[in-house]
Design goal:
It is a single chain. α3 packs across α6. α11 links the parallel β9 and β10. The protein has a 5-stranded mixed beta sheet with strand order 1-7-6-4-5, with helices on both faces. It folds into 2 domains: 236 residues, Peroxisomal Thiolase, Chain A, domain 1 (3-Layer(aba) Sandwich), CATH 3.40.47; 156 residues, Thiolase/Chalcone synthase (Peroxisomal Thiolase, Chain A, domain 1), CATH 3.40.47. It contains 13 helices and 14 strands. It is an alpha/beta fold and 403 residues long.
Amino acid sequence: MGAITPLGNSVEDSWRGIRAGKSGIAPITKFDTADFDTKIAGEIKSFDPLIYVNKKERRRLDDFILYALAAAEMAAADAGLAGFDGEKAGTVIGSGIGGLATLEKETLILRHTGPRRVATFMIPSILANLAAGHVSIRFGLKGPISSPTTACAAGTNAIGDAFRIIQQGFADLMVAGGTEAAVTPLSVAGFNAMRAISTKNDIPEKASRPFDQERSGFVIGEGCGLVILEELTSAQTRGAKIYAEVVGYGLTADAYHLAAPPPGHEGAVRCMKNALADGNVRPEDVDYINAHGTSTPLNDLYETQAIKTVFGETHPLVPVSSTKSMTGHMLGATGGVEAIFTVLAMRDGILPPTINLDNPDPECDLDYVPHQSRTRKIETALSNTFGFGGVNASLIFKKFAEG
């Protein structure tokens, strides 16, 4: 696994922050926010791209690609891979937006200095599939390659699609997850125009408050989370460290609204049910749910309702938490990062907390593990992500047992 998040520039640093209930939300430093309603974000901090690329590459690559290259290097090292069987290894890395910062910068150059000053590498730096492309080139991954752009579900969508590719025998190993670097003026202005993101700028670490009565929108974040999925026999043959097994995947559409989920979130209900059925997992066997939990009024309420529908009488027993309370919403990177947090929760027997749940919404009445992490044995876990356009994606993980 490899990760760059607002809580740290490695998997373990990020996970340490999650376990401690630490917030990665702070004032925006990437641009002047004087004229913006929102002045806070979950930015990446103290990241040195020159650890992973040379100075020429740094100038040519958008941050969403740099984050993916860094996370892929970490994941390959963590997996103990000295090299890849290129034709049996592939790449699925999702991004909701791609190189928005580069697009904004080059648009200004075009406007103020003319077309001949636009950078040669502008197009390859903004295309959403170029994170997967660069990782494929860096590691010689010649198998299937894809890049879901399913908004905030892109990272989960990518891991699920990679899971299917291996199941169907098209590859033995896949690098999969999501990456995003959209803390930019245009992005923040656009989400402000939609009234989708929080404007509680006075105490940044308190702004992301999923399931709380005073939630007022999500906090935008950035980062990357990549995992290496491998066919079991291949992994065992080379003595790989196996964190967990992917057993179920669900992907559905609401067919309802561009941005809002439907009451009761019927699409999420079908998605979770499909993932459970795919993994032959009963609702009562799920020990933890990493919720989409965006801190928006509708998502948190309707996801709660969907969980109640799927888990029936067992729903009061299933701990649910939103790690977005600490990272903010990393858009297309969310699914990859939260898959990692879900698997580490299983590894360590730690339920991540939902911080800032000071005044619970009476209609959001599940066990959201408020304020502090909690110990619990976790054998089976579910991770949800939902996105604009009505896309829903869910993954089921099981703790791996030899034999």
